[in-house]
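Much of what follows relies on a compact textual record of a protein's fold. A record is reproduced here so that you can trace the correspondence yourselves:

. . .
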Amino acid sequence: MAVRATLSAAAEEYLSWLAVERGRSPNTVAAYRRDLAAYEACLAASGRSAPEAGVGDVEDYLARLRRDRRSPATVARVQSAVRGLHRFLAEEGWARQDAGADLERARVPLRLPKALSEDEVGAIIGAVRGDGPAARRDRALLELLYGTGARISEAVGLDLADCAGQVGLLRLSGKGGKERLVPLGRLAASALASWLSPEGRGRVAPARWRRRGDAEAVFLNARGGRLSRQGAYAIVRRHAEAAGLEHRVSPHVLRHSCATHMLARGADVRVVQELLGHASIATTQLYTKVTTEHLRAAYDAAHPRAGPWRAMGRDPNL
């Protein structure tokens, strides 16, 4: 599907409103921009613009995405972007009708988060070899992602001032600009201190910074600029591949593993909610189901009288 490089003036106004008035994050606005560019390109191919579109146009476009086997999560995000655009157009007088008003909200199937075992996480971190600046940075990044459950965007967005507060605490800036303090474990703190030393970050930092803000970045790339999300993702994948786990690992899997392992070891779900920065405890409670399923599987495999009755679907003594 061809995508126009530019958006209509109406769509640009909508994205500006999202960023300024609603405080949506740059990542959200960027995703909506891609979605709306594809939507407007499809409308243009039929000779219509967004203000001229009707509910049938929106329904046809979403049906097309489903035929193209886009994931339910992607379709739901596109529907949210398109509905928001048409509501904005109607409220601001760009269009005579709200073409998305009668759409039924897309439902995303509940997906349980995937988690690694503790040994697998250890293998990935252990795959970092050497004591040079790159190795120190990679080890610190992996320890921090797993040790704090930080999102990849939160990790690469860290500034030196975020590490300079109370001892053993790190300040993360999460979704919607919400800040939270998270504890930094012994191994993560040690790895981070090693990277921030003169022999780590000090050897990568340039004499002259190319971009404003790079001088304050905790994690730097080989050229001395702030490490990007793509760069951090590549670091995680590289060491996962070295550990033989490349098909199962992304930065978000380390976040999932942090939550799952803490709950499995008895952490309160509300403590984990605060650590991960979840707005709703329902999101955190997904991990309790994961740990319960692991407990059930271990019980079925180990108890001599567990498996057969479950296979029968009932306990004959009840």
